[in-house]
Amino acid sequence: MRVRNDLLHVVEKNEEKIDAVEAFESIHGVKRVERPQDYINYIIDLREYDVPYHVRFAIDNDVRSGQWYNVNVSGSDVLLQRREDLLQRAEVHVCAFDIETTKLPLKFPDAEYDNVMMISYMIDGQGYLIINRECVGEDIDDLEYTPKPEFEGYFRVKNVQTELDLLKAWFSHMQEVKPGIYVTYNGDFFDWPFLEKRAAHHGIKMNEEIGFQCDNNQGECRAKFSCHLDCFAWVKRDSYLPQGSQGLKAVTKAKLGYDPLEVNPEDMVRFAMEQPQTMASYSVSDAVATYYLYMTYVHPFIFSLATIIPMSPDEVLRKGSGTLCEMLLMVQAFKASVICPNKHQADLEKFYNNRLLESETYIGGHVECLETGVFRSDLPTKFQLEPLAYEQLIGNLDRDLHYVIAVEGKLDIDSVTNYDEVKDAIEQKLVALRDHPIREERPLIYHLDVAAMYPNIILTNRLQPPSIVTDVDCTACDFNRPGKNCLRKLEWVWRGETYMAKKNDYYHIKRQIESELIQSGGIASSKPFLDLSKPEHLLKLKDRLKKYCQKAHKRVVDKPITEVREAGICMRENSFYVDTVRSFRDRRYEYKGLNKTWKGKLAEAKASGNSMKIQEAQDMVVLYDSLQLAHKCILNSFYGYVMRKGARWYSMEMAGVVTYTGAKIIQNARLLVEKIGRPLELDTDGIWCVLPGSFPENFTFKTKAGKKLTISYPCVMLNADVARNNTNDQYQTLKDPVNKTYTTHSECSIEFEVDGPYKAMILPASKEEGILIKKRYAVFNEDGTLAELKGFEIKRRGELKLIKVFQAEVFDKFLHGSTLEECYSAVASVANRWLDLLDNQGIDIADSELLDFISESSTMSKSLVDYGEQKSCAVTTAKRLAEFLGDSMVKDKGLHCQYIVAREPQGTPVSERAVPVAIFETDPEIAKHYLRKWFRFSSDANIRSIVDWSYYKQRLSSAIQKIITIPAAMQKISNPVPRVLHPDWLHKKVREKDDRFRQRKLRDIFSPLAKEEGLHNLNRTGDMEDLLISNKDLRKNPSHGLDIDKENNPNGASVGSGLNISKKQQNCMTGLNVPCTSQIQNAASYETVDKGTDYQGWLD
Q1: Tens digit of pLDDT for each residue in 582-623?
Q2: For 812-988, which CATH class?
Q3: Neighbours of 898 (CB within 10 A)
Q4: Do 720 and 403 form a contact (C-beta atoms < 8 A)?
């Protein structure tokens, strides 16, 4: 360690001197004499010096946790030999525990003066409960808590007299059992530190008793010989649960499938004395939930990852997904004999257009909401399809089917026995849709998403940070030859913000501040600027620059700049990064396949009624689903990792290329979906859409060998286009390491997959004109279960419960009714019921229930003093809590503020009208005193007379507008909740939608020509006057003004006038004996109806 620190100083000095030395040598034309004893002056870099010792050992010796080894000890040497034949995971003793403590009202438990009331724990499925009779009203007998048959909980209870006896009993049992793994839920933050402090209070060192010690700097509790796995860390990183659903109760419901016992924290101390059996059941319920959550999800996941990541299980659980990616890359780099780069350090002085950059990044993925309202598979939806798009699908049908058979199915086209039959079935459906483009029918609701999009973009284009090269790199490369195919260029979008000051202004400010004395670190004395540390240099300099910009230019930074840039990708760079991503992706695909297999076995087991097989299949489904989700999290992090601060493999260009390529794939797919259906929402990696119910879906190819290949046509048509536009024909693989020869092949692993069809999709609206809310929707499966719920208040912590309960009730109602009107009517009934509750001021419910509905909560991350002059509901609540509960309440951070909004004093901001809910739980006389003081009225302290009902009605009305009334108006349904008025802009929007005489846009009538067609027919363009023909003249002479060249334009599209007319429509116009539908008369895209000759047609 000391040598490393000394060498770091040497490297820093040598880096500073190297530029001066090179400049001196270039001016004088001489080189300094190199002497062996001056070797220290030539050290200009250190690598891998900051790798922790245990990680270095694990990488170098290929040692991993969770695997079997033969251990041979010879003198001071220890030899580990891995047992490849032993695959089954070792069974270790697991102890999951949870503690219940006393607490002061509205305060978080404090180990300085609060006590441990109970400690419940499970060891290998057997439960134990230790009771502190100082805090519990009576002895507790052995009890059972088994929420589900598969989650048994039999508890042996031990009643002790004091907290000291409780701690000694638990420590003694742990010394006896010696668990290899301790499991908690948020134990790093609460359980372990609390136990450690209470043990110290009684003169016991927890570290000496069971080996665990809390690290306050890292916020972790660790031991040298045993693991502590905190399930909360897994939930935050790998569970894919929203932040508002990460408490133990919510996780238990979501992952284990049952509702756990709940007790209000403010009632726990009282219940321990008055209802001890209730508190005992509650305590053991937490231990049961923690144990089975760990054994079902966390244990298999952590030890699967630990077998490939060179870290201890504690670190595998707690480290970020970016760090896990880096560990995997370091392993592959070692195997490939690649020295790892140092952690990235940002350039402190970077300029763009002669100005200092304040920040720079890249444009990320494209997300957009396109529709709002209710879309159900059993309610007809209107479609305006583009016949030319369907004509193109028909023309590409052979291409698309050949692609899916050869590339995705890996079959020989000649081996397929029913190709013509499948093709004809698809073509018939496409022809029917082409011939009747304006239709109303039941839709198919699909989510077309790219499987593992970012990882597959990386793999397809051989993207990795070392592969990003410049012209300078290529000039120095041995493979730089004319006609080289090892350089692939891809676009990305750079985004930067610059300071307003020019570069010369910046340097002038810098020279000025370098000659000044600067006050540093709050110290009264000052010191020269150059004596400050580099971070302080930058901070002081930028602070001075901001003041100058504000004074001279009236703003600090200029408007953001975006610029399309091109990145060079070397196809011959060592592929260790790409190989790591590929192996991890394939591992996830393996888990997904096993999950699908076990789902099939589960269905078979349920059909047979074998309970043992059902349980086994359910366990395996949960296991593999957890593993594939966890691998998804880390797999997607390979993209985000390259832009992480301090990443060893850092590349903004690579991250930009990945997101820009992905955005183009989704936007190109959207262009097709817009023509053949209706896109609803664009995700980063997919499209939610509705397609006509008669659109081709699933088909099965049969082969001569009896093998079957089932395809989804919506995916097939997109994948063929993706392959055409995104295939990398320059992908190179090292063939001969000695002679450095490479083989070139085409690569494209980017493919769409289809999810659905779904029963319904609900997209809310925004209250602002012209804005649609992104990433907020509800999706239902065909069986009526909720498939996905994203972005709503129901999933947020601390949100108004009135809104959350309203949303929880309203979503199911969207499946009611046989028409859109009936659907909105069913939904409106829920809204009206909650509006009635507010209109009659909650007269039908108890005060406690009313408070529960209208109260909001917030936890203060700092002490009240640290908030200073900030104003918020939480700050006002904290101040008022301090008034009647004492200033000690607000000295520390973590105060839980639960409040309602009062109507008095009128005219003041909402933040000044917050009332702590606790005031209504105190003595009535005390409550009356403070309520009169705060609101300056002398009436009784009745909660209903205090509440600002208009505020809550406005909050509820806002939610109703977003979910019900505005979407209804956009779908031409009259306001289903008349009490909630439409915003003013919506009336105009509705009138425009209903206006039959609204002027049409030119782009709805004309479509652009392909460039080559326009150039080909440049000399054949007619006069302007020739285009102004009436509908009557067009019927008499359909070729007048239209130059239809069947030889040069076999599809029949007009190339003379710019009107796109299909061959079928030409035949109809010329009176040929070809079947023709009435759609040509209805589709205004192809005819302009003359008001003077056909008034009714003009109206239609």
Answers
A1: 988 888 888 888 888 988 888 888 888 888 888 888 878 877
A2: mainly alpha
A3: 21
A4: yes
- Can you tell me the distance from the alpha carbon of 664 to that of 44, in angstroms, rounded to the nearest whole number? 43
3-state helix, strand, coil in the chain (%, to 5): 45, 20, 35
Cα gap 184→207, rounded to integer Å: 17
Strands (E), 626-697: 678-682, 686-692
Phi, psi dihedrals of residue 527, rounded to the nearest 5°: -145, 160
Instruction: Give me the CATH code for the 94-314 domain, please.
Output: 3.30.420.10
Structure tokens belonging to residue 858: 């917030």
Amino acid at residue number 677: G
pLDDT, one tens digit per residue, over 483-542 is: 889 999 999 999 999 999 999 999 999 888 888 887 765 554 677 877 777 778 888 888
Q: Are 914 and 876 in contact (CB under 8 A)?
A: yes
From CA 563, how far away is CA 560, in angstroms rounded?
10
CA distances from 742 to 42, 248, 719, 748, 985 (A): 36, 54, 28, 19, 63
Number of residues assigned to the chain: 1100
Q: What is the DSSP letter of 893?
A: S
Contact 824, 975 (CB under 8 A): no
User: What's the pTM value of the predicted model, to 2 decimals?
Assistant: 0.81
Amino acid making up residue 801:
K
pLDDT in tens, 412-433: 988 999 999 999 999 999 999 9
Buried-state track 595-607, b at ≥16 Cβ within 10 A, e below 16: beebbebbeebee
- For residue 297, give every residue at least 6 positions away whose Cβ sits within 8 Å of its Cβ, in sequence order, or none: 234, 239, 255, 622, 626
Q: What is the DSSP letter of 521?
A: T
Q: Which two tokens stand for residue 145?
A: 């808590």
**Helical H segments across 683-800, by residue range:** 713-726
**Residue 1064 is encoded by which pair of tokens?**
């079928």
Burial profile 963-1002: b = 16 or more Cβ within 10 angstroms, e = fewer? bbbbbbbbbebebbbeebebbeebeebbeeeeeeeeeeee
> Within 10 A of 258 (CB to CB), how many other CB atoms are there?
13
Neighbours of 388 (CB within 10 A): 19
Percent of the chain having pLDDT more than 70? 86
The radius of gyration of the chain from alpha carbons, rounded to an integer in Å, stands at: 35
* Whole-number Cα distances in Å, 410 to 708, 721, 731, 1060: 12, 18, 20, 38
The span from the first CA to the last CA of the chain, in angstroms, equals 85
Residue 84 CB neighbour total at 10 angstroms:
8
Residues facing 703 on adjacent strands: 416
Tokens linked to 1058: 């710019």
